[in-house]
Amino acid sequence: xxxxxxxxxGWWGRTLVEAVAQSGDEIRFVAGATxxxxxxxxxxxxxxxLELKASFDELLRMPKVDAVVLATPHSLHVPQIVAAAxxxxxxxxxxxxxxxxxxxxAALGAVxxxxxxxGLGYNRRFHPTMTDLRxxxxxxxxxxxxxxxxxxxxxxxxxxxxxxxxxxxxxxPCGGLTPMGVHVVDAAIDLFGEVEEVYCMSLHRAVQIDADxxxxxxxxxxxxxxxxxxxxxxxxxxxRLQVYGSEGWLRVxxxxxxxxxxxxxxxxxxxxxxxxxxxxxxxxxxxxxxxDTSRAALVAFARAAEGGPAYLIPPEQxxxxxxxxxxxxxxAAARRAxxxx
Length: 341
Known about the structure:
alpha/beta; Rossmann fold
């Protein structure tokens, strides 16, 4: 059993706690810390049996805490990971890990030196639908892969106040890239390997805060195929991932984490209808199963921390994902294609 502390108790931090509240004997939350301890947070901690601490450092000094789970702004991830590793704590970090390759390498270096486990919150990787797609791609069932397309949208930026951290352009460069689009970047790395080059166009159209809300990204993969990712933060919620191959295409539809949705929906209803259309013959359509991806990711992390199977996302892919994010941000600023470092 891994005793964990939640760091950051906004709506997503609380969702992670709820994901394993009835999970059995792999992982449980015993403590927490957040920048602002509102009555809502205090009530939640009391209901979940969490010992609230005033700071992250206090959590690290708790002998009963084996691991910390970071649901904090991206700019805090690397120093928090380094500090936790030095304190001998395993770390589960919400995505994105970092916005540059150098930062990601620093985090992984600290984890490796301390001999602790790092898990990264790309929870969609754990859904059976993604497992099926991965097996189809790697098994050649789609033929030669030509192209992928991903689209992720939600209305959340329409609701943001200028004082909230996600309204800070430095924390959320390229609009929906860091809150949503990095899921598709991670899926591309998982399914097709490393990214060679990106081109990003990011625009401010409708939101009242100083942030982009409409972002488009082109990819050239190292294996020669192409890809596209679009994110919008000022329209209805949606998720689509489509892979095109010489034997046919497969499309997965679903939702994103829309503000105000129930915890159960945010955890288990990410994937919806799926379609496979072969080059020859009739298409097939089916409904993805309800599956708690957040619970699956946390349980996999706990098992890895206790010496079980390695976490699904290997360190080199964590680092490459940060390098791709860095290149996308550079491309948007320079208005030109950028190679991934």
